[in-house]
Design brief:
With 282 residues, the chain is α+β, with helices and mostly antiparallel strands. 34% of the residues lie in helices and 26% in strands. A hairpin with a 2-residue loop joins strand 1 and strand 2. The mean pLDDT is 92.
Length: 282
């Protein structure tokens, strides 16, 4: 059994390629054969029409749960669909064991529509700290990997977000209004101001990848489900980015955050966006 962070570091040094292979294999076996081939009975709603689940989500998560658990004895898996079936499963994120946090298809709506903007997200965390992450966009042939303290890479190329270009409006991807409370809507309206160009977000994982690549300036999200954020936040961090909640503290995957929160290309941008979220409209 893994007993300390040092041995997890050793695991990552030895088996990171095996994790990559597991992520690719799950997509090849369960996701891509259903891409643009979903039958109506393979698509269901969870909380509502904007919250979809497909057979690809369920079967890919099952594949990853079995494979990742076997790769790292003593670890547990927290997957989006497992938590939907049994919310108590989520509590493992706050435990002492290493945790695989899995979103089998992030961007299910895009997947259902036959668009390429979806990905598989896997993060390895312990004690509320994300140690490594894998972001795989199978329809685009892209795999991004981050290991805490060792950088972020896309298909083997080092990622560096860098600061936004001066004099240009900040592009900020924001939560869909259907997933926000009235108070959060008010906070997000703070972004509708000069010098900022807000837009609705797509797959959260791919928005974080865009930040790490320096293609998007920031996000402003109003929900804290760790499977949507854990992998991408580490990816952005390791590319030089930063994240802040409304309280001015970094986002915690264990929950209890002051929302909305922002992740940005650099700390200065994160502070600017957080300040606008804290003000709301006049």
């Amino acid at each position: 059994m893994i007993v300390d962070t040092e041995t997890i570091d050793e695991f990552l040094a030895r088996r990171s390629a095996d994790v990559e292979e597991a992520v690719r294999a799950a997509a090849a076996a369960e996701i891509m054969p259903r891409f643009r081939r979903l039958a109506a009975h393979e698509i269901n709603q969870k909380a509502g029409p904007h919250d979809l689940v497909t057979d690809a989500d369920r079967l890919a998560e099952r594949y990853l749960t079995e494979t990742l658990g076997a790769l790292l004895p003593g670890s547990v898996v927290v997957g989006e669909e497992a938590v939907h079936a049994n919310p108590a499963t989520y509590e493992a994120i706050q435990g002492d064991a290493p945790v695989w946090i899995v979103d089998p298809v992030d961007g299910t709506r895009q997947f259902v529509r036959g668009e390429t903007g979806f990905c598989t997200l896997v993060a390895l965390a312990r004690g509320g700290v994300v140690l490594a992450s894998w972001t795989y966009a199978p329809a685009r042939g892209q795999l991004a990997v981050a290991v805490r303290g060792r950088g972020a890479f896309l298909d083997g190329e080092r990622l560096y977000a860098g600061p936004p270009a001066p004099g240009r409006d900040l592009e900020v991807a924001t939560s869909h209004p259907d997933y926000t409370t009235d108070e959060q809507k008010h906070a997000l309206l703070g972004l509708w101001t000069d010098g900022v160009a807000p837009r609705a977000c797509g797959s959260a994982g791919l928005e974080y990848l865009a930040i790490a690549r320096g293609e998007l300036d920031a996000t402003a999200f109003s929900w804290e489900a760790s499977w949507d954020h854990a992998a991408g936040i580490l990816l952005a961090e390791e590319a030089g980015g930063a994240h802040l909640t409304l309280s001015g503290e970094p986002f915690r995957i264990t929950g209890g955050n002051s929302l909305p929160f922002t992740t940005a290309r650099d700390e200065e941008t994160a502070r600017r966006v957080a300040a606008l979220l804290g003000q709301g409209p006049a």
